[in-house]
Amino acid sequence: MSKTKNINSLPKLKPMPGYVLIEPVELEKKTATGIVLPDTHDEKSQKGKVIALGGPQITDSGKKVTPEFKVGETVIYKKWGGDEVKFGVSGKEYIFVKFEDILAIIK
């Protein structure tokens, strides 16, 4: 389960090796058929913009794993992966996700 932490401002961050910092994209508040979803709708976003990348992940066998995505790209990640953090006075939410939890790049 992920935990949420408050941090005062968005400093220049470099995630640890094997991690990526993502700004989640807000989910639509309305369905394709026009039904407005209530604020209590708990669906978590699985799509976000890559803000920062950590260094290559080193596997147990010593192999370096580098991500195929770059800063600025939009990705889809596992629904319950990652650790949420909130930055700034407004409490904007970001999420740290492991490279292996990125499922796809949206082109």
UniProtKB/TrEMBL annotation:
One of its GO terms (molecular function) is metal ion binding. Together with the chaperonin GroEL, plays an essential role in assisting protein folding. The GroEL-GroES system forms a nano-cage that allows encapsulation of the non-native substrate proteins and provides a physical environment optimized to promote and accelerate protein folding. GroES binds to the apical surface of the GroEL ring, thereby capping the opening of the GroEL channel. Heptamer of 7 subunits arranged in a ring. Interacts with the chaperonin GroEL. Belongs to the GroES chaperonin family. One of its GO terms (cellular component) is cytoplasm. It is found in: Cytoplasm. The gene is groES. This is Co-chaperonin GroES. Keywords: Chaperone, Cytoplasm. CDD domains: cpn10. InterPro entries: Chaperonin_GroES (IPR020818), Chaperonin_GroES_sf (IPR037124), GroES-like_sf (IPR011032). Pfam families: Cpn10. SMART domains: Cpn10.
